[in-house]
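Workshop exercise sheet. Pairs work together: one partner reads the sequence aloud, the other fills in the structure field after running the prediction. Swap roles for the next sheet.
Pair: D.N. / O.F.
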Amino acid sequence: MRPVDLVVMLHSHLPYVLNHGRWPHGSDWICEAAIDTYLPLVEKFRALEAMNVAAPVTIGFTPILANQLEHPTFAAELAAYFDQRLAACDEAPASMEATGDGHLLPLVEYWRARLVRLRLLFHEIRRDLPAEFRRLQDAGRLEVTSSAATHGFLPMLKHDASIRFQLALGAAEHERLFGRAPEGCWVPECACRPAGPWAPMAGMAPVERDGTESHLAWAGYRYFFVDSHMARAGSPLGLYGELFDGETTRLADGPVEPPAKGEHTPYEAYRVTGPGDPRDVAAFVRDPRSSMQVWSRHGGYPGAAPYLEFHKIRWPGGLRLWRVSAPGTDLGHKEAYVPDEARRQATAHAAHFARLVDQVRQAQGERGGQVIVAPFDTELFGHWWYEGPDFLGDLYAQLPHFGALRAATAGGHLDAQAPRTGLRLAEGSWGANGDFSMWHSALVDWTWPVIWEVEDRFWALAPRALADDRVHEILAQAARAMLLLQSSDWQFIISTGEVEDYAIRRFNGHAADCSALLDALARALDGEDLEGGLALARDQQQRDDVFREIIPSIARVVNELRVGS
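Structure field:
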């Protein structure tokens, strides 16, 4: 029997936060992710590399995140953040003794040692996280994938040109940062729309639109990922994977049966481009069972008693010093964290997960299954689940003991096994309910006419602006502002209700930037106030300094529009 491949896909994304404040939703957001997740993963991958343990993870970085991670402003902000965190460790002992928490002081030293170690690692990799992942990729240790430029919610964008711009710029930026064209694309929110009539709002006349897979093929991608229900291979898990078929699912040792619903198996990659299309694009389907075991807040690993409690933080200083403890324990009664005990639990859970996946392999291998795909938000590993990087490293160390189960990258799987044909994807996402409701509902529908008006104006002006080198700076900054406005994060945050005011403020700010820049571009094209427009563009770029080589991607899309017309 041919080995069944296990593809672990980590999707890394944060919206643009540099130069938009610090705490709690400015640069501290990305600095926290770097210290909690990105640097610990680098540390883990380097350790596995030194031990010659294969860890062929597939890890994606959205272009907007990668742009921030390579920027000198981020390096400076992270240096300040390290200083802040270490100062908190220095100040903690006196106040903890005064409040009777002296028994927790060893944990303060634990955090201090960790912060010093990670700061040294950051300098060792020359303060350039994308470059280190590029090195690991070039060494054959992992595969790096891309995404749409600013993680725009593609099915709701009005113009195909906007979808292709997001994808084309994403591919171009990935090649600039990681040294090669991306094979894989994480479609934002796993949100796909099949070809057909498009009329998202009441009263809109339906317009025939291409499907998401056609845009991916045009942009040159080889594969992407979908949730199981979109391939008609199971029920939607939702963003957090808490419910499956309406009931809490707890996976344990024992036989693993295929999903009862659906006409397709999630254990295959599928060719999803149309008949006769020479450009192959494959869809990998999320395995609901292995994903559930990690994701679920009710029965998943991160809720185990020894693990670090995310929600209890000591102020001032922001140190996490407690463990999850027994189920239902109130935050005020959490027990002290014991790092060695949590580390042993991560090793045990990695062994359990390897056995679970091998059971899936046995069941699906007998039915011709070829691949098990477990996609996660990267920030789960380290940020939300502190022990996640240790779990991941231990998992890859365990897998060689399962001879018929092979750890592989997504591209490596396609190299060994051609995708099946004949799959037409259903509309959906990996959001709540498996549909578009987190990005298209009464709460957020007011945002879309704003985005659509900007799209209309931008694509009407772009052909003229490309022909006039004098206005390219204004055109480029207008494009940046439009892309930042299109970020799916704003609707997502509003829908969750957690920091709604922040998302509304950011959305309205980028909308105002777009309006001002497009007005300036129109005046400059008419021979009026070129210098004023250039000054405005340069001023805004000081704050929103991303995608410096953006004009070629605009030109690619505009030229495609000319050919199509």
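Discussion prompt: The chain has a mean pLDDT of 92. What would you look at next?
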